[in-house]
Structure formats: structure tokens, C-alpha cells
Specification:
The protein is an alpha/beta fold. It has helices at residues 22-35, 54-68, 83-96, 113-126, 147-153, 169-178, 193-198, 213-224, 228-235, 239-247, 250-260, 277-289, and strands at residues 5-8, 75-80, 100-105, 132-136, 159-164, 184-187, 203-206. Strand 4, helix 5 and strand 5 form a beta-alpha-beta unit.
Amino acid sequence: MSFSGVFPYLVSPIDQSGAVMKGVLTDLVDHLVQTGVHGLAPLGSTGEFAYLSQEQRRHVVDTVISANRGRVPVVAGVASTSTSDAVAQTEYMVEAGADGILAILEAYFPISDEGVEGYFTAIAKAAKGRPVVLYTNPQFQRSDLTLPIIERLSHVENIRYIKDASTNTGRLLSIIERTRGRMEVFAASAHIPACVMMIGGIGWMAGPACIVPRQSIALYEAAKAGDWVKAMELQRPLWRINEIFAKYSIAGCIKTALQLQGFPVGAPIAPQSPLGEAARVEISTVLRDVGAL
């Protein structure tokens, strides 16, 4: 199975009792698939994976897989501070029916390059041939994937993709050149998909696609067609999305936007705080400006 296109990082709707709101998540999955997204990625950063229990993570992925009904690939997030737990998570996701694994390294103590490489290699083995997407986000991670590690991991047969959220297009170009033919790159964030696809990327795997799926798909299709004038016309307004993300918390921002769009996904998980009325007004204005409300 090959991945490309727009893969929204799904939110995790959790009610006040801690239960996954299956109906809301099912409605969101239906909406995104019907809009035309090319895949779904539960338990990415926007999915607040770091705030969820193991049981909640499983319920989120089970719900997404059930709601999707095989229509598009589901790439489930796996994140842990220990290799053994990451392997156990991967085995569960595979058994549940995930089409691929989004592999994330959490770290408390610093990890050696050998430890980082071993962590992702173990996940790839546990994935039983399913494609693995490496996820690196230096803003939030204590131990990052260096270029030499990425190059070595690209030789693992089923580690075939990477989402690099460093926002450093030079680093992305280095990854593409060093792993050409073995690993493909997904863009992150709302301000660089056109740039990433221009240098050889294959799509956009990010939270903003939850709230601007139609715009994201149009941008991807223009870039895929090589219509860079149109792609940049579509890209520029999406900078407003990045501006509100920089101003407010990512999960709070996207959950607020989804609420405004009619999806009662609840508040960001404590100790994160819900956004106030001024933020809701600003987010509403931005959504209207980009045609998403």
C-alpha cells in the first residue's frame, strides 16, 4: 500500500468522564472522507496522544477504523518512552486493522543515536510489513531524528515515509536527497505544503487538514499537477491558519474550529485550558476568510 495526498491528524474527542465520544469522531471521519481526503491519521500531535491513557488511545483508533469502513488508509499513531511499550502499541494497532503506523518517540532522558534507531526499527518489525511513517517534531521532542539516523532507517524495508515538522525546508531537501527512492516526505503545518511538494514531497499530513480539508485537497491537486501559480494562490491564505496556531494551543485551536463548524469535539484535555471567547471570535474570522465556515 502506498500513501500520498492529504492525511488529517484527527482530534481525539474526549468527554468529561474520559470516554471517547464515538459518535462525534464517526461524524468527523465521515465528513473528511466524503470531502475527499486521501487518508486519516489518528493519534498525531493534534490527537493529543501525550494526554491519553492507553485505553483511550485504543478506543480512538478502533473508532476511526470502524467509522472509516476501509474507504481510505488509516495510519495510527504509536508513541512511547519505551521500546517495549511502543512495540505492544504497534501490535495492537496492526491487529485492530490499521493500514500503517505513525511512529513517534517520546523521551524524558536523552537517547543515544543507537537507541533512537533501535526504537523505530523495533516498531517497523512489529508493524508486520505495514508502512511506517517516521514523525519528527523538534519543537516538542527531547530526542530528535538526525539526518544520519533517518538515512539509516530509510534502508528498513517498510519505513517508507517521514513527516518532518521542523519547518526547515533545507532539512527536508536533505532528507529527500539522502533517501531518494526509499523514503517519501510529507509536509507539516499550514504554511509550507506547496514548498515541500515543489521539492519532491508527496502530500500533507497535519492537523489543519481537519478544519480546511477542501482547501488542503485543492492545494495538493494543484501541486501534483505542477500548477505552481495556482498552488501558491491557494497556499497564501492558509498562512492565517498558522498564525492562529502560533498564537493559541494547537489542540485547543483545532477543537474550537471544529466546534464552530458543527462538530462538538469537546475541550482540549486538561491541564490544557479551553480557549476563551476572544479566541473563538478570532478563529471564526480566520475560518470565514479562508472559506471554511
